[in-house]
Design a protein that fits this description.
The protein is of the alpha/beta class. The chain contains eleven helices and 19 strands. The protein has two domains: about 260 residues, 4-Layer Sandwich (Purple Acid Phosphatase, chain A, domain 2), CATH 3.60.21; about 55 residues, no CATH class. α1 packs parallel to α2, α5 runs parallel beside α6 and α10 crosses α11. It starts with a strand and ends with a helix. It holds the Pfam family SbcD_C.
Length: about 375
């Protein structure tokens, strides 16, 4: 069985102020062309098809075009909803669409019901695990405390139970949208932390032949059988060093995995430049970045006049301008935002308590803060579902 593994299309998303719809359409064309040329048996899309619960009309039209083109190839597609998608909206008409070979898996209750695709060696069972917001699905899976590891573990128990009842030799592929331990995040993924613990161990997925992950935007190999495809396009400057790609997976008769990484089309390279304004304007080594999308971090101790206008004379595609003066870390002018960089909501709340009263929260208070943050996150997720 040969299939393409992709995820995190984020249709409708812009890159800073640049409309990415054209680049997204080019990727869809590339995906369809690759499926045809490499004679794949299936395409799997591991969530975040759209960038938000209510996508713009142009994004919906592009998705509709993608479905028609894939169905027209006669190549089955298995697709799950991610944390950016509205599972209800994405899943509308799933039964009818499935008759055309496009299988949408958006219902948590259906995680143990696979899409069965045959090849010369028997069936391959594709199990779709849509993004599982712990607070919203814990009752469905019968777990006491909402947490990513608990609900994904319970979902995988259903997968393994179904697989155990199938003929010997049935191979299995799981699509999941999650933050798995060992994965490297970027700035463009929406935080899914619950209780301070977003990551789940790769061992949660034991017992299946291949796990097609979505959520993290960098292509990554956690194990030979557990991989992220990453997003096909960059959506933040933190992805400047990413090689955007999809996985071409050959699943052998014995469940062995052979993987080939296929590059995606790049609309424009990214560059992160740092230095004083005068250095950036004069450095001949930076000539190669003049046609790139640029994020410039200025280290001038005094903010220069008209920095964006001057930068765009040399780098016309400058999209982001950051000021980070070279100062001693103890300088009171060092920004609050820089002091908070890289800290979680839980850590920031605990630091605030320590700052106000001189001592950090005890174990009980830490639990109260965690529960409060979880409740806010669950309320936000419930509103997204209801929209």
């Amino acid at each position: 069985m040969r299939f393409l593994h992709t995820s995190d299309w984020h249709l409708g998303r812009a890159f800073h102020r640049v409309n990415m719809l054209g680049a997204q359409a080019e990727f869809i064309g590339h995906l369809v062309g690759t499926a045809r040329e490499r004679e794949v048996d299936a395409v799997v899309v591991s969530g975040d098809v759209y960038d938000r619960a209510v996508p713009p009309l142009a994004a919906v039209e592009l998705f509709d075009d993608a479905l028609h083109r894939l169905a027209g190839l006669g190549v089955p597609t298995v697709m799950i909803s991610g944390n950016h998608d509205s599972a209800r909206r994405l899943g509308v008409g799933a039964g009818l669409i499935g008759r055309a070979g496009v299988h949408l898996r958006t219902e948590p209750a259906a995680v143990g019901t696979p899409v069965l695709l045959p090849d010369a060696h028997g069936d391959v069972a594709f199990y779709g695990l849509p993004y599982l917001e712990p607070a919203l699905v814990k009752d469905e899976f019968g777990v006491e405390r909402a947490g990513h590891e608990a609900v994904l573990g319970a979902a995988m128990d259903r997968v393994r139970a179904d697989l155990a009842g199938r003929p010997t030799g049935t191979r299995s592929v799981v699509l999941a949208h999650a933050f798995v331990t060992g994965g490297r995040a970027s700035d463009s993924e929406r935080d899914i932390t619950v209780g301070g613990v977003a990551a789940v161990p790769a061992g949660v997925f034991d017992g299946v032949d291949y796990v097609a992950l979505g959520h993290l935007h960098g292509c990554q190999i956690l194990t030979e059988r557990v991989r992220y495809s990453g997003s096909p396009l960059a959506y933040s400057f933190s992805e400047a060093d990413h090689r955007k790609s999809t996985w071409l997976i050959d699943l052998g008769a014995d469940g062995s995995v052979a993987a080939e990484r296929l590059d995606c089309p790049v609309p424009r390279p990214l560059a992160r430049l740092r230095g004083t304004l005068e250095d950036l304007l004069a450095d001949p080594e930076l000539t190669r970045h003049e046609e790139a999308w640029v994020e410039a971090t200025l280290t001038d101790t005094v903010r220069p006049a008209d920095p964006m206008a001057r930068l765009t004379e040399r780098f016309p595609h400058t999209l982001s301008l950051v000021f980070a003066p070279d100062r001693d870390p103890d300088d009171p002018r060092v920004s609050y935002a820089r002091r908070l960089a890289g800290r979680t909501d839980q850590q920031i709340a605990q630091d605030f308590v320590a700052h106000v009263r001189g001592a950090g929260p005890d174990a009980r208070e830490t639990a109260v803060l965690r529960d409060a943050l979880d409740a806010v996150r669950a309320d936000d997720a419930a509103r997204e579902v209801a929209r």
